[in-house]
Amino acid sequence: MEELFQKYQQGCLPIRFVNFKNILNQASLWIDVEGATKNVLHGFSDSFRRGTILSVLIEVESKPQWQDQWKDLDVVSFFISNNFIPILRDNEYKNQFNIIFIREDLFDGEVLAIMNYFYSSISKFIDK
User: Fold this and answer.
1) Which domain holds residue 74?
2) Where are the beta strands (DSSP E) in 48-116?
C-alpha cells in the first residue's frame, strides 16, 4: 500500500498525498443531495466496504430541513463506522455546512494519534 502514496513533511505533521495514477478503481465523492444523504450513503455501502472510496466532501445540516433526513451527527457516525475520519468542516450557513472525510488507512500512525488526542480533548466539551 505504501507505493500508493508520496509522503511530505508539513510543519510537524507528516502528510501523505495519494499518487492518483495507481488508484484508477477508487474515487472521491462530493455529496450535496438536499436531505437524501441517508439514502445516498446506503447506496454506496458496497463501495465503502470494498474500499473504493478514498474521501468524501458532504453537505450536512445540524437541524432537520427535510423529512427523515440524517443530521450531522448521523452522518459522522456513519462515516466513523466505515473507517473514515472527519478532517475539516466549513461554516457555510448557521445550521448547514460541509465536512471532508478521508479513509482512515490513508493516514499514518502519528497523524492518527494526534487526531485521536484532539478528538478526545474536545469531546470533554461537546458531551456536556
Assistant:
1) 2-126
2) 53-61, 84-89, 96-103
